[in-house]
Amino acid sequence: MIVKALQFFGQGIVYAGMALWLGYFANQPVYTQLPPDTALVKLSVIHGAQHEGECRKRTQEELDALAPNMRAPFDCPRERLPVTIEVLLDGKLVYRESVQPAGLARGGKTRAYYKFQTGAGPHELEARLVDSARTEGYDYEKAARIDLIPGENFVIDFRAELGGFKFLGRSVTDLPEN
Amino acid sequence: MDLLKRAIRYLFAWMEAGLDRVFPPSCNPLYHLGALGFLYYWVVVATGIYLYIFFDTGLTEAYASIQQITYEQWYLGGVMRSLHRYASDGMVAMMAVHMLREFSLDRYRGARWFTWFTGLPILWMVYAAGISGYWMVWDKLAQYIAIATTEWLDRLPIVGGTIARNFLDPSRLDDRFFTLMVFMHIFVPLFLLFVLWIHLQRVSRPTINPPRLLAGGTMLMLMVLSLVKPAESQPPADLTMVPSPVGLDWFYLPAYPLMDIWSDAALWGLVIFASALFIALPWLPPLRRARAAEVDLANCNGCQRCVDDCPFAAVEMGMRTDGRPFDMQAIVDPDLCVACGICAGACPTSMPFRKASALIPGIDMPDMPIRGLRDDVEREAGKLTGKIRIMAFGCQHGWDIARIGDPDMAVLRLPCIAMLPPAFIDYVLSRDLADGVLLAGCSEGDCYNRRGVEWTNARLARTRDPMLRSRVQMERVETVWAGPVEGWTHRKRLRAFKDRLAALRSATATRPDETVE
């Protein structure tokens, strides 16, 4: 009888141990991804740069030689140029990369994703992008004064169809372009 | 590798021995890890069906509906949610311990490679199902998981860095996202059931339900846990803020913090390497196993006992090919055979009394034939000279009973205790080769070869063929089923057995005219 009771007690201990194990590690210990008083800035770009060469207008003879459904008026090279992206925070370059287009023939869009942590508070943020063969200046650029709150997820988005860079944050004051 | 395996095995053996003292042998949780995993799976499915009735797949509705389930129906919906979470965690826990234990027992190589191999998709599917479930709540944790997972998946060239953009800001997300998650969270567990079925294809009579006592205790534990510490959501997701700090479910998400420490590519490397290692493990190095059982048609009468007793479905019946007047014959699949010898122990022709013809059973182990076993018994028993002579048969996977070093005991070790045909016990005692026979094997409920102890007990109890002959005096037979660290149990039982045999001897000596039937 005593042995049986002790066995039941032992089983209770085992089950309690299992419950503690499951109950604790189901959401503890807490994970801190971002230190206090910092914010996260994310850059995301999906953009098709300009083609590597100029498009050439096809002659009428060339068009006649093509199947009716293939008679595109311009003959453009498939390959696209790399996209160069820069991000500056308080005048300091924090990201610069020349990203190749996707695809085996380099004919796809360029994709870039980058994130970095910075202290909360006011900053000057600038983003620039070159998607052409130009060697000076930028095709797209945007600068703004931002005020990051602790834990903020600030986004630098790029949409060419909407005019280029978009800064998505709680406090953004656009600065004039250079 | 071997050292690591032994160390883990040793650790498990001690835990098993401890739990054997608390639970009945048939209910030791460590012997039912797979079945417990199944139980948790069914709890997750049942509670999931209930929760789905009330779950609303919308960007804001998802969180609100779960809050409603949790708080407005805490007595049912809240408990269901908690059971759903804790059973999911329990499933991962059981799976991990089960895997580790099978590894330590070396039950992943040789014929068992298939079961090990099919464990990998199970592992991934359980994780996919669990992670998609957390995602559906759309709280801070869901946001953390969504962003971390999509950033990681975006690293794949085929994905091309497009998924994580969905979580850049709140304007990009719509209700369709939840429809996708619901589909994943339902489809993956359903498909998991199919893979679990495949996982058990090479296991004969798999145990998929834990014993009632254990199932009841586990359910009670889950229920109490659900009431004491109900599963709750974290604050709702807000894509304008970083979800930090966040309470992680460490059963499902232990690798997630690595995404912040390592690069995504490094984590992919780790996952691919770990998966490849898992798959390759059965061949690192391959198991040098004994040769598979062989059928001798001249002695096989197609009785099917070997088929009934094989725990690995390695023997099946097929049409007779030798023209003898039997319908069927046994056929061994060498790829499935683990050479445990249980089939030889079950064969009615494994009869040591046979002298007129050579002792060749219908099914036998080429590396340890029954005839050789008889020779060994006669040789070893012949060396016994004490007043009490014991012939012991031990299992190679249990504690080595020869370590006791008792001069009154001869020991022979077999790949499985059920390889011993019961006729050998009769043979030893009736030929006066020993005064008693001791059988030592794995813990009850945890036979290395799954069914050896169970079949042996049934044969001795004369409830399963081949049965021990009724003329065998059971007082002269002792069984010790204990784990590989339980030397003390073997010693204690041997002492008691010797005392019993001595008492029998003196009783017989005082009544010399009595004969034993």
CATH architecture of the largest domain in chain A: Sandwich
Number of helices of chain B: 17
CATH class label of the largest domain in chain A: Mainly Beta
Q: Mind telling me the C-alpha Rg of chain B?
A: 29 Å
CATH architecture of the largest domain in chain B: Up-down Bundle
* First-residue to last-residue Cα separation of chain A: 89 Å
Instruction: Estimate the strand proportion of chain A.
Output: 35-45%
Q: What is the level 1 CATH name of the largest domain in chain B?
A: Mainly Alpha
Largest sheet of chain A: 5 strands, antiparallel
Instruction: Output the CATH homologous superfamily of the largest domain in chain B.
Output: Cytochrome Bc1 Complex, Chain C
User: So what's the overall shape of chain A?
Assistant: elongated
Unreliable segments of 5+ consecutive residues of chain A: none
By CATH, the topology of the largest domain in chain B is: Cytochrome Bc1 Complex, Chain C
- Number of E-state strands of chain A: 12
Task: Please tell me the total number of domains of chain A.
Answer: 2
Using the CA coordinates, give the radius of gyration of chain A.
Answer: 28 Å
Please give the number of β-strands of chain B.
9
**Large-scale geometry of chain B:** elongated
| Low-pLDDT runs of chain B | none
Strand content of chain B: 5-15%
Give a structural overview.
The complex is a heterodimer of chains A (178) and B (517). Chain A is of the alpha+beta class and 178 residues long. Chain A folds into 2 domains: 1-30; 38-53 and 81-175, Immunoglobulin-like (Sandwich), CATH 2.60.40. Chain A has 2 helices and 12 strands, in the order H-E-E-E-H-E-E-E-E-E-E-E-E-E. Chain A has a 5-stranded antiparallel beta sheet with strand order 6-5-8-9-12, with no helix packed on it. A 4-stranded mixed beta sheet of chain A has the order 7-2-10-11, with no helix packed on it. In chain A, strands 3-4 form a two-stranded antiparallel ribbon. In chain A, a hairpin with a 4-residue loop joins strand 10 and strand 11. The longest helix of chain A has 24 residues, at 2-25. Chain B has 517 residues and is α/β, with parallel strands linked by helices. Chain B has 2 domains: 2-242 and 253-280, Cytochrome Bc1 Complex, Chain C; 294-510, no CATH class. Helix content of chain B is 49%, strand content 8%. Chain B is built from 17 helices and 9 strands. Chain B has helices spanning 2-22, 33-54, 61-72, 74-104, 113-117, 119-137, 140-153, 176-199, 212-228, 256-261, 264-280, 305-309, 342-346, 370-382, 423-430, 452-460, 487-510; strands at residues 246-247, 294-295, 315-319, 328-332, 363-364, 390-395, 409-414, 436-441, 477-481. In chain B, the strands form 3 sheets. A 4-stranded parallel beta sheet of chain B has the order 7-6-8-9, sandwiched between helices. In chain B, strand 8, helix 16 and strand 9 form a beta-alpha-beta unit. In chain B, helix 1 (2-22) crosses helix 4 and helix 4 crosses helix 9 (212-228). The longest helix of chain B has 31 residues, at 74-104. The model of chain B has no long low-confidence stretch (mean pLDDT 92). The interface between A and B is large, with 40 and 47 residues. Strand 1 of chain A pairs antiparallel with strand 1 of chain B.
